[in-house]
Amino acid sequence: MRGMESLSQLLGRLALDLGAVAVLTFAVYFPRHRRRDLLPAYLALNVALFAVVAALARVGEGGGMALGFGLFGVLSMIRLRSESIQNEEVAYYFTTLVLGLIAGLPHLPFGIAATLCVLPIAVIYVADHPRLFARTYRTVVTLDAAVSDPEAVRAHVRARLGEPLAWSVAEVDFVRDVTVVDVRYRQERRPAPGHRAPVPQVPARMRENAV
């Protein structure tokens, strides 16, 4: 009888975990970022952590210590060094970890677990909302010239993108004659037809990523 009760609690928490991570990935993440390749990673990481936590928490009196060492081992194996993963996507990674951890703890009351699962989803929903700072961008500008004068760099950025919110020179290569500038800027309103801002005589190649 006690085993059946424990099994029903486990299935209830598994349903909570799957429901929470489904909302996070399919209702929040994918409609905004459209990266299908990360969906299996999020789901597998979440369910795997839930299984590890649920198993370690039921190993007896030493479960607490085993749980701590087990979680340390699981988290230490995670490597998020791929340059193709943006910072906001790393936030989704850690949110899936938190959901699996909270839902898998058997001694945490179910109502509190459900509330704590809703909390990070609500936070990331608001923090990553497309309308929040929608006109603020991050751009890496590569100049085909080694420019060391800060005012010259600022003039080029201002002519191309408008007055920058913040910028820093990431690299000045006098051998390849290249300057790389990391710029944060706000997209201004479109100028009137026929209007063109003066551009310094320094060609540039740019690639943009919204913050």
Automatic annotation (TrEMBL):
**A Pfam family this protein belongs to?**
DUF4956
Start and end residues of each stretch annotated as Disordered: 191-211
Q: Does the keyword Transmembrane apply?
A: yes
Keyword tags? Membrane, Transmembrane, Transmembrane helix
| InterPro entries named among the record's database cross-references | DUF4956
TM region(s), chain numbering: 12-31, 38-56, 112-128
Keyword Transferase annotated: no
User: Which branch of life, at top level?
Assistant: Bacteria
What is this protein's record name?
Answer: DUF4956 domain-containing protein
